[in-house]
Amino acid sequence: MWTRSSVHLTADLVLAGQWDGRLTAFDRDRDSLDPRWGIMHPGHPVTLGSLEDELVVGSRGEDGTIAAYDLATGEQRWAYETATDIGPPAKDGIFALPYVVALETDPDRGTVYAAARRYERDGADRRWRSTVFAFDADGRVRWRYETDASPIAIDVNETGDRLAVGYNRCMGSHDVGLVVLDTDSGETRWDWDPGTDGDRRVGDVSFDGPHLAVASHGDKRGYLLGPGGEERWRLDLAVETELGDETLYAYPNHVSAIDGRVAFATGNTYAKESRDTDSLHPNEHQLTVVDAAGDPLWTASLDGFAHELTTADDTLVVPCAQHFRTRDSAAHGVRRFDAENGPLEDIPTDGIATAVAADERTIAAVEEPVAYHDETRVRGEYALHTIPIDR
């Protein structure tokens, strides 16, 4: 349920990041399995993006490194340690490591945007430190936006002048789930919040023209906001629901807006009082797609936990793990949907599909091995899949 691998497509390459730090570039139209290049990156390469001729990589690691590499050769061009801003890990363990949780590139402006965060806990005292960065193509920091909240997602609009930042945990002085920044200056243009109690706020954000779609952790709904943050509509997704003597809910973890349609993906069921239950929310692990007015077009079961949601033209692609309670390996795989009409195909994997990239020609996915705690066998392997999309 946390990011371990990454994959990215350019016009010529399929690029994969592995948990041990390896970055590998393969020719898309290759005749052999030999990579074009492979390097070791400092930390775990969990977020990837590209500009015209360089790959940009964000890490989870001691230094929270962001680095850029020449796409043709893999030679490093620049690197920046986000721990300089958010601090080094306060203790051992994966969740204490500085984490570049999201990365977006704007090739037209030659700009890289990244959100890095660090978490520390001392008994009941829990704290976040985070910074959103804008980098020029040569690695110079153009601006920083710093808070004591936890960013989860960023997205840049089509005209390149606005950057949306979603915060899923707000436990300090920063008390809004969404800020929209001016990409030239880093100044806040407007903000928005679901207005709910507690520190849970936003799960994901996605621009579609002048509108911004938001998946809300606070009230488990989906929203479409106008250019200044005005609410156009909201949609119940996995809101608190009474089932027997329990109150159940699930978080809307992902949203993608595409040509007037908005897709939301929900996650695991939790019980309000205990966060553990043998029952399932009726809308957990569900993909819901609505039109520009917020009216439902279709829904589909994902059968398991969705690690992300990506789009290519009018196609939605989702890598899925098993249901974390029932652990049905038949759920492992990549699901492809037509944004207008619904399911197209399921691409099964023996292990868990944890990362995906897609364009009009190809789906690229990373499969990871998994061993269920009540079994002795290992399912699947660490593998990169490339699947052509038939049109």
Automatic annotation (TrEMBL):
Coiled-coil regions listed: none
Superkingdom assignment: Archaea
Family matches, as InterPro entries: PQQ_b-propeller_rpt, PQQ_rpt_dom, Quinoprotein_ADH-like_sf, WD40/YVTN_repeat-like_dom_sf
Record-linked SMART domains: PQQ
Segments forming domain Pyrrolo-quinoline quinone repeat: 109-192
Entries under Pfam families matching the protein: PQQ_2
Name listed for the protein in its UniProt record: Pyrrolo-quinoline quinone repeat-containing protein
Species this protein is from: Natrialba aegyptia DSM 13077
